[in-house]
Write a structure and sequence with these properties.
It contains eleven helices and eleven strands. Bound molecules: calcium ion (CA) (4 copies).
């Protein structure tokens, strides 16, 4: 009796294991039996994925649609056309999620369009206009003017607005000059830069960015004005140079929009003023209500900190001041050479990012040409968090 039962069990075992009964089925002839084959039809798509993608796992003629060939089928792909912009984001903004030629590029990459303004790091020039190229002789902060700064990637600018002299104080007399008002000599006595030309050039370069691009392309620019002229004079300046058309207005306390939305809406310039104006000039954001900075102009790099200098440190937008002063209080090219150096500046920025638990919106330097401020921000923008692995030197 025992032996008979054993034979029966062995026979059942053979049947269940498939060695008796069904013949060996192998649809794609890859030597793996269909029961065991994760891709039965051998079309390169796993059975289970084909089912999820509404495609037949037993038909080599039928593969899931995959517009961007990233091996995620269209049904499951949150970015069907592979332009780095999610389908929903595109649809909400009137872009075609099935067409990677219908896209937008921000600061060189589509994915940066998704970043909010306060989650990006912009290289910034301190006293951007005070350059030898602009003919500034005393109190020079850089060698090269706006065109070179723009071409080099600088996208935030600190400027000082004064009237031409104590007698010439009309709106047309606004100039970018560097010095202390109310003292002798007048800040514009030795050198002055025409802000009407300067801002018109900025406006035309911003327009060219889009015109030279086969898609919709844009860059967001920020201007911090140390302002010694009335609001209506500054308004006259921004009006005449066409910048006013593109100024973004931020309501205090509101989250900042995405860079892509600012560009799509044509509101891609943010203006801050150091001395607050009347509230009716809502596009002249009081700098120290909407942002903050770290202390600046120390004499030694050991004295640089990530602490609050001016402003409201609960604001997400902030300037990392990264320039040192000479013993005379002026910009110092030798010290700039030290603190603009790639490793030093990158490490300092990441350290402050960690301490303040938020990336710096701006990293501001003197002598931007010396060292690698724009490479540092390229690296920083590739990072999502301060503790990410540091990408390779650009
Ligand atoms: Ca398959
Ligand atoms: Ca895909
Ligand atoms: Ca897309
Ligand atoms: Ca698209």
């Amino acid at each position: 009796m025992g032996k008979q039962w054993l034979v029966v069990l062995i026979v059942i075992g053979f049947i269940l294991s498939g060695c008796i009964g069904d013949e060996f089925l192998d649809m794609d002839n890859d030597g793996i039996e269909d029961n065991e084959d994760l891709d039965r039809d051998g079309d390169g798509w796993m059975n289970i994925i084909e089912i999820d993608c509404s495609s037949d796992p037993d038909n080599i003629e039928e593969k899931p649609n995959d517009l961007d060939n990233d091996t995620i089928c269209d049904t499951l792909d949150e970015d069907i056309d592979g332009d780095e912009l999610p389908n929903d984001w595109e649809v909400e903004r009137g872009l075609d999620p099935m067409d990677n030629n219908d896209t937008i590029i921000c600061h060189g990459l589509s994915k940066y369009c998704l970043r909010s303004y306060d989650d990006f790091t912009f290289p910034e020039t301190h006293n951007a206009f005070a350059t030898s190229e602009d003919g500034v002789i005393l109190g020079t902060n850089h060698y090269t003017g706006l065109q070179a700064q723009w071409d080099g990637g600088v996208r935030a600018f600190m400027v000082d607005a004064h009237h031409l002299s104590d007698e010439e104080t009309e709106a047309e007399d606004v100039r970018f000059c560097h010095g202390s008002p109310g003292q002798f000599p007048h800040p514009c006595m030795y050198s002055e830069v025409d802000p009407f030309e300067w801002l018109s050039l900025l406006n035309s370069m911003m327009n060219l960015t889009d015109e030279n691009c086969s898609f919709k392309c844009g860059e967001v620019v920020s201007i911090l004005v140390e302002n010694y002229v009335p609001a209506e004079h500054l308004e006259f300046l921004f009006n005449r140079t066409g910048i006013i058309e593109r100024v973004f207005i931020h309501q205090l306390g509101d989250p900042w929009p995405s860079i892509g939305d600012m560009i799509l809406q044509g509101k891609d310039v943010v203006i801050y003023v150091q001395s607050e104006y009347n509230e009716s000039y809502s596009y002249f954001h009081p700098a120290w209500k909407h942002s903050w900075d770290t202390p600046y102009g120390q004499q030694d790099k050991e004295e640089m900190t990530c602490e609050l200098g001016r402003g409201d440190s609960s604001q997400s937008v902030w300037h990392l001041s990264n320039w040192l002063s000479s013993m005379f209080g002026t910009a110092d090219p030798y010290k700039a050479h030290e603190v603009n150096e790639y490793e030093f500046l990158l490490n300092r920025t990441i350290e402050c990012w960690e301490i303040m638990d938020r990336r710096p919106t701006f990293v501001a330097v003197d002598y931007w040409e010396d060292g690698e401020i724009t490479n540092v921000t390229i690296t920083l923008n590739k990072m999502e968090n301060w503790d990410d692995e540091i990408p390779a030197h650009p």
